[in-house]
Amino acid sequence: MARTVLAASIAILVALPAAAQANEASGKVISGAIDGFIRPVYGRLVGATTDLGISMGKLCAAPSTDTLEAARKAFSKTTESWSEVEIIRFGPITEENRLERMLFWPDRKGTGLKQVQAAIADKDETATDAARLGDKSVAMQGLGALEFVLFGTGADDLAGAGAAYRCSYGKAISGNIGKIASDVDAAWRDDKGFAAQWKQPGLDNALYRNATEAITELLEVYVNGLELVRDVRVNGFLGKEATADKPKQALFWRSEGTAASLGGNIAGMKALFDASRFGSLLPADAQWIAQSIDFEFANAQNAAAAVSGPIDAVLTDAEKRGKLAYFGVVTSSLSELFGTRLASALGLTAGFSSLDGD
């Protein structure tokens, strides 16, 4: 009995330093993800939405071709900033339906489009107040709704005085988007909030009991993010054959921002990988995995950059369409590298996909 107790005690003493080292290494990676990527990119998003709100205000106050063009450019900058950070689909963005309120997509039944068109046709005054708009359907208060306001049928009328209601509605949407971005930014910057829970796993932590659970959350950013980009975004409009393509099912097709969105998603993942130094957790004989990930990120970014412009024109160009298909292949390679190779090397297992059921 004494020997059994002694052996157990020795095992515990040996395990404690190993657990402490694992927590320290995990903490550095998570801190890098938060301080080196999430907080800076949300700061940029807040800046972009602020500029968008200012541009919408100027458009409504003095409608013209120039102010409309400025508002459209501000919208595109906002969607590009959002595309980088939308890969972080856990934490503060999941509270109060913020993720869906920021971007309701995919909208396979056209629910959002119908609601936005109805609001414009009926001149629903309650939709012109950002605070009240935030309580309405998620489908009519985010980036998809604002894209239709600025780029959809009848949007050119915003350059004149005859679209005052449409502009007021768009201004309210921009205000709502700005508030969501600011609220999430503030939540991530709270050192006693969600960031602290993710950085400091433990038995008294309701979300992350140990370093493995904390690091698995980071792994799932890539597993779920790559699935989103490939299966929901690209395969949502790219058919197996050109005759099966559906360009109007592509995200941000009206504003010609489809490629920029895809590129932003990949750029965000690459920036997160670099800032967190996720690859530093790999043993020396598995460092090739991190190198392969860097290589494939570069391939994906190059492919996305090659398919900019109107997505319908991209799909009718055989060479560009091939680049888009190649982009899908590369994301599959990245999925294998993260979900199988890196996960196995670190002894991790990705859990439930947030995209299941879409």
The domain tally reads 2
Distance between the termini: 56 Å
Named at the architecture level, the CATH assignment of the largest domain is Up-down Bundle
In terms of per-residue confidence, which ranges show pLDDT below 50 for 5 or more consecutive residues? 5-18
| Strand portion | under 5%
Q: How are helices and strands ordered from N to C?
A: HHHHHHHHHHHHH
Fourth CATH level, the homologous superfamily of the largest domain: M75 peptidase, HXXE motif
Give the overall average pLDDT. 93
CATH topology name of the largest domain: A middle domain of Talin 1
Helix content: 55-70%
Q: Compute the CA-based radius of gyration.
A: 23 Å
Largest sheet: none
* Annotation, overall tally of beta strands: 0
Structural class: mainly alpha
Discrete helix count: 13
CATH class of the largest domain reads: Mainly Alpha
How would you sum up the global shape?
globular
Written account of the structure:
This protein is globular. Helix content is 67%, strand content 0%. The protein is mostly helical. The chain has 13 helices and no strands. It has two domains: 28-199, M75 peptidase, HXXE motif (A middle domain of Talin 1, Up-down Bundle); 211-346. Residues 5-18 have low confidence and may be disordered.
